[in-house]
Amino acid sequence: MIPNVPDTGVLMLDISRFNPDYFMSKIPEISVIARKADSVDELRINLSQLAHDMMFETFDDYDTFTVGSIIRVRDCAKVLMRMMTRRSEDKAGFSVAQAIKDIAQRKSRPDLTPAFYAEMLHLFLGLQGRGPGKNMADLHLIPSRFRQQEAAIERSHQLDELFDHINARGEKSVSGLHEESIKRRKARQERILEKLKASRENWNDWHWQTANILRYSDEISRLVELSDEEYDAISLSRKNRLPFGITPYYLSLMDDDRASGRDRAIRAQVIPPENYVEKMAEAERFGYCLDFMKEAETSPINLITRRYPAICIFKPFNTCPQICVYCQRNWEIDDAMEPGALASEEQIEAAIQWIRNHPAIHEVLVTGGDPLAMEDADIDRILAMLADVPSIERIRIGTRTLVTLPMRITDQLVAILSKYRQTGKRQMAIVTHIQHSYEITPETVAAVNRFRDMGIPVYNQLVYTFFVSRRFEAANLRRLLTLSGIEPYYTFNTKGKEETMEYRVPIARLLQEQKEEARMLPGLTRTDEAVYNVPGQGKNYLRDSGRRDLISILPNGSRLYEFHPWEKNISRDIKTHLSEDVPILDYLLRLEKIGEDVSDYETIWYYY
Ligand code: SF4
Questions:
Q1: What would the pLDDT profile of 395-449 be if each residue is shown by its tens digit?
Q2: What is the Cα–Cα distance from 521 to 516, expressed in whole angstroms?
Q3: Is the confidence at residue 5, as pLDDT, over 60?
Q4: CB-based contact 321:369 (threshold 8 Å)
Q5: Residue 603 and residue 355: Cα distance in Å, rounded?
Q6: How far, in Å, CA of 218 to CA of 192, rounded?
Q7: What's the 336 CA to ligand 1 centre distance in angstroms?
Q8: Cβ of 327 less than 6 Å from ligand 1
Q9: Apex CA 290: angle with CA 567 and CA 307, to 5°?
Q10: Using CA atoms, how far apart are residues 586 and 255, in angstroms rounded to an integer?
Q11: Pairwise CA distance, residues 143 & 141, whole Å
Q12: Nearest-5° angle of CA 313, CA 319, CA 320?
């Protein structure tokens, strides 16, 4: 019989329980099935049958169960059935069925980690409609006892309570537009100006900012407090000649009281962790390429990347005012504002001629490097050439200057961009990358307004890193973005790049965020799409579970997903992509370390 009540908070992070004995004592039926099976193949079939039966029983006897339990059983059953197939085992190079059999027969399996047992335990509890079930701090909307308007009044009251709860969490999150933040930053700017012997006029001049990019631990630590690890990582990155730099403006967004954690996301954006530096240096030393997105395979000509029919990426400028640690192009980007980053005239002309020769291309994303870090004359020249290509309906500029160098958005620059806008013929659009609401400042908002006043919309792409993945952090960012005139466009799952492991978040957390946090906000606040960017193929929309399969739980507790490419059904013989995720247990333990109440996240196990 399937119990109808979730085991709220039973397991969560009690690591001592994630072992074979506890697993078998909690799910004795599985132990019996595993011992009875004569072979692993028989066990695979029997567990699939069990999954099927559980799903059938739940849906057949539906009035005994809550809708939540039914859905959980369905999801777990689907995952278990998929994992038990021979194809999944072959692709994963690992047999979950074999592992279960070994555990049941008390064979030693030192390869299986607590994170593996945690996943399996939650999966089998879920298959019975059990497992932790606390979300939204136990606030549930209850069907009304009344009818018509009385029912509406009661529901409205419940919705008020729910939103108060959401708001209270949002209020904990910091914003760069709070009066206190503005005051703190003004004071820091004065200190930086004093140390650099410069004036307010200098500060507002983007050329002064780029001429004074901070590149060394010593100079940075004179202006802002660095931890020992940060200091060493910066020194090591310079020693290994890795691209690095922070604009004085961006440095002023950092706080002195690091322990408050307010500027965690800001520091993580630009100060590399030590293991990142080591991995990058190793790649340089041994000459292996970090082109995770396989750009080389989608670049038909220098400076161009094409993954979809009507759009291409154009990269005329190979540097930025400062370098994001987890930049997708970290393998090819130059040092911050390195001279010579602008492609030659011949290369630019050849790339634009290639676009002209492919009239299917209706949109060009000019990106980078950061194209708005080019001089006005170069921007004007390149835009004029692009605007001269008859098929181009939209020129999109990918830039982070709104965050790293907002003084770059001068009236003159905006006038250049808006020259190429023609209502009904060609749109100009800005796509920026704001990671956290603490990055949104009055200077950023003023820059956004300048674009919007000239009819140029601004969109945002968020990368869902560990540092912005706490409950309601992304939802809060989206609220502030839309209030500041920026439309949320994409939320990217962090890539599986080995060198940026510290930034990664399980896909399950992003799915949970979309369902339990983003969904609570009005539609115009959550206009973005959560995506996983498949190397060499492009975006896989995570809300469509039909485009991926969870095919295995690996010994280290990682989920192994198989992603189906976007062009499935319109092309033949295409390959799927396997992606090993971050173990959920490891992620939760990290959250706990930074002071999160991990029981707030406990439904994460059931997002597949
Ligand atoms: S602004 Fe864009 S191109 Fe430049 S370092 Fe950051 S992610 Fe890379």
A1: 999 999 999 999 999 999 999 999 999 999 999 999 999 999 999 999 999 999 9
A2: 10
A3: no
A4: no
A5: 47
A6: 14
A7: 10
A8: yes
A9: 20
A10: 28
A11: 7
A12: 100
